[in-house]
Write a structure and sequence with these properties.
Layout (H helix, E strand, L loop, with lengths): L1 H58 L6 H14 L8 E4 L5 E3 L14 H6 L1 H10 L4 E7 L8 E10 L4 E8 H25 L12
Antiparallel strand pairs: 1-2, 1-5, 3-4, 4-5
Helix pairs in contact: 1-2, 1-5
Length: 208
């Protein structure tokens, strides 16, 4: 009997170690996915700011007036896409939409969105201007073809010469879907591993 008890303890300990390892892998996957997304948005954002700066620089050479430079820049930003058809938006200092991948957002004002109201528009703008490089936030944001707002990881940058707030947003549910697929794979793997473990010739480990 003692022998069976020892074997049972060792088997259960082995199962717990396997579950703990796989759970840690899942948690690390979610964290690394979010960090990777933030890094991608930040790097692409730097390139976008450089592009905006190139349009602004042309106004100093007399080759184009500022109004035309702004117009061309906004058109370029509206057409720009990266990673899964993600685009960039532009708002002015009064939070009026100047350019956005979702056309209905052009001319809209941030104050209309509850998540912006909760974040405090004035405080958010102040933070964006203070952190001259970039600022991240989680907001409810519109998606083309969907009536309901969707939770997004948003990047905001400030371009002081034109007082533009430039940013992009990535739907968090896309990351969650990847995590769900990862979780399903882990459960399948655990089921297979646990099915191979047995306490005796007729018993096994059952997780409810």
């Amino acid at each position: 009997i003692a022998q069976y008890h020892n074997l049972a303890d060792e088997t259960v300990d082995s199962v717990i170690r396997v579950i703990d390892t796989e759970y840690s892998d899942l948690v690390n996957f979610e964290i690394s996915s979010i960090n990777a997304q933030r890094a991608l948005m930040k790097n692409v954002g730097r390139g976008v700011l450089s592009m905006v700066e190139s349009f602004y620089a042309r106004t100093g050479t007399g080759g184009i007036d500022e109004a035309a430079a702004r117009k061309e820049c906004l058109e370029r930003l509206e057409a720009f896409r990266f990673q899964d058809d993600q685009g960039f938006f532009v708002f002015d200092a009064n939070l009026a939409g100047l350019s956005h991948p979702v056309r209905r957002m052009v001319g809209k004002n941030w104050f209309e969105y509850e998540s912006i109201q909760k974040a405090g528009p004035t405080r958010l703008i102040r933070k964006i201007k203070k952190n001259k490089s970039h600022t991240f936030a989680v907001l409810m944001w519109p998606v083309e073809g969907k009536q309901k707002l969707v939770k997004h990881l948003a990047l905001f940058m400030y371009y002081p010469e034109w007082e533009w707030i430039i940013g992009t947003a990535y739907p968090i549910d896309a990351i969650e879907q990847k995590s769900t697929r990862k979780e399903a794979g882990i459960l399948t793997k655990l089921d297979k591993i646990i099915g191979q473990l047995s306490i005796n010739s007729i018993g096994g480990v059952l997780i409810l």
